[in-house]
Amino acid sequence: MIAAQCPHATRVAGYRKWQELGRQVRKGERAIKILGYSTKKTTATDPVIGEEVEDRVVRYRVLSVFDHRGLCETEAESTAYVMVQLLGLDTDASSISYIAGWSRADPAAIAAVAANVLRAVNTIAAGFGLDDQDDDATGEQTAA
Known about the structure:
The chain is an alpha+beta fold. It is 42% helix and 25% strand.
């Protein structure tokens, strides 16, 4: 069902699950419909013995999930862009349009990944030994 609705989907989850993972579904994002398995406990009076009997009914409900490839790509590309800027390389011409494409040029999508991008950049910068200088790219002072 997923491939028929969204052939490029790579990682799907429900709205609340994405929030638990620190991601936000973009406004206007089209849901992918799937069948979700669940059971429901029912109680009924057995007409033969006259006692209440519990039973479980299997249900398949239509659920909405979202592919976050675009947001994950926005985060990855934004991290790469900030890192190369920090290293003094110029990639503005190609990177900005690429990030805009993955984010659908939505400032809210870029803002949604900003904290994760800064965390990743600080971690990577520490690996390069750049963690003891003022980082103009992130606007933060990183600690050694």
